[in-house]
Amino acid sequence: MFRKVLLAVTCLLPAACAGGLHPVVPDTARMAPGALGSGFDPDVTAVNLAQWAFAVSSRTHGRPIEGARAAASMDYIAGQLYTSPRWSNISAITKEQLLQGRQEVRAVLGVVPGTSSQAVVDHLTTAGNALAAGDQAAAVAQLGSPVFIEPGEQVLQRLGNLPYMHMANVSTMRAANQLFDSGGSRDLDF
Questions:
Q1: Bridge partners of 111?
Q2: What pLDDT tens digit does each residue of the chain (190 aa) get?
Q3: Is the distance from CB of 46 to CB of 73 less than 8 angstroms?
């Protein structure tokens, strides 16, 4: 009898443990065409915009529209390029770096921990589009609680004065280089 119980436990233990190991899928937002101020493919637009903005911090100084759109792009592509089969050519290292870049940007902007990517993307794109339309009050209303820790005015100031963020720069540069690459530059270290 003891052998039967021991055999049953031995057989069931790996099955029970295997059920508990599930890969962690990053939070992924959706973005409509036009949300970033253009009618082009949102994935490609987001990668290009984020790469341009985070390569040199002065590109967003005094330009909160670009800061808001770049930050929204970073949050969006970190999930989208990780989860979409369309972008299976993006290296695993780059995908992980994009998630680190997302966290770096969120920390600078003061995003409330645990906020969904969809909420961050929606609030930042709406704020950027409101600023582009000349409606600063609507933009400020999007940049406060519950998504951001600080009041909207302070977040707006940060968007117009983003510091250099190393991982946001490196990850978006790698993603832009790999977007349509068939594998030639996947393993470059930056």
A1: 148
A2: 545 544 444 444 444 444 555 567 888 999 988 888 887 889 999 999 999 999 999 999 999 999 999 999 999 999 999 999 999 999 999 999 999 999 999 999 999 999 999 999 999 999 999 999 999 999 999 999 999 999 999 999 999 999 999 999 999 999 999 987 755 444 444 4
A3: yes
Amino acid at 164: Y
DSSP readout, 140-177? Answer: HHHSSTTTBSS-HHHHHHHHTSPPP-HHHHHHHHHHHH
- CB count within 10 Å of CB 66 equals 22
How many CB atoms lie under 10 A from the CB of residue 17?
9
Q: How many CB atoms lie within 10 A of CB 103?
A: 17
Distance of alpha carbon 105 from alpha carbon 107, whole angstroms: 5
How far, in whole angstroms, is CA 164 from its chain's centroid? Answer: 16
